Amino acid sequence: MSCPRIEVDLGKIRRNTQTLVGRLSPRGIRVTGVTKAVCGHPVIAQAMLDGGASGLADARVSNVQRLRQAGITCPVTLIRTPMLSQVDEVVQLCEASYNTEIAVIAALASAAISKDKVHGIILMVEMGDQRDGILPENLANIARQVMKMPGVVLKGIGANFACLSGVAPTASQMVALGNLANETEGLCGPVLKTVSGGNSANLPWALGEQTTGRINDLRLGEAILLGVEPVSGDRIGEMHTDAFTLVAEVIETGAKPTHFPIALVDPTLARLRIVPTSGVSTRLILAIGHQDTDIAGLSMPVGSTLIGATSDHLVIESNRSALKLGSEVRFQMNYNALMHAMAAPDIKVKLLGDPPTTPSRHTQCMYDHLALV
To answer: What is the pTM of this model?
Structure first.
């Protein structure tokens, strides 16, 4: 079987989505499945939809194009403010987009008019993450300008948390976002259909005892895919944390002496030499490296210790005598490792479990080339 590869359990992704939808829906919050970590993989996206996600979201136009080419027809929102150079594609592929720049919104409006479309605008508000967002005091003015533009419609507002700053949102921030929605409606007129409270980092708040107020949408990727809450890394309830497994092959085995008699070309590299705790260690070299994934985001298998990695090699120490040349070693991944591995051209994706319940014609064709076991 081809290595390296990522094994994806579609059933676990679907059940994780069902769990979150089941817990959030009674609280008035719908789930938008975020597909950016899996590069817009259409079969994984369909598993989210089968689990009850109300729609999909991604940060890259190329990923949305992949979804559309596979026959995904549900609403898709671009969650990174569009590039001016891509407004035509955004209007063609996405029902809505998150925006912070009035010049970009104007360009989207012009593109929409030329295509006889109306594009939805969700204004991203800066609520403390200090990444993307309109300052709250400027929100009303920009909302008014959007209201006057033909070709676009003000669909809602949203915020982002725990991405750049790593700080989890608070209940008071959620109340403040809801108040901004009320104020915007009062000043501009239309009812905002979407008040998106943020991402997976919002789940401790959303699943807590307090009321959720105006918040009616969360953009969930990490929680669905990995079953964990991003800030703490804790497992969410009984959700599956092993829907994705990275598999790498052993290409060298044997013992290495601790002090190898070599002369370093650059003496400053001496501090980078890895010295095991024992005099002689049994090491395995695997055909995967920094070019393929975030090595720091891999969980080592039981009985194995990470020694180090280079661009194309991963070195571990293991007490598992069954591991020989050609053996496969399996790793769990955090979100960063998953993103990098899914985007790596040399890593294949193997889909496991039941296929989507209602695949489109294009999606069904994909199963002629993918192994489902």
So the answer is: 0.87
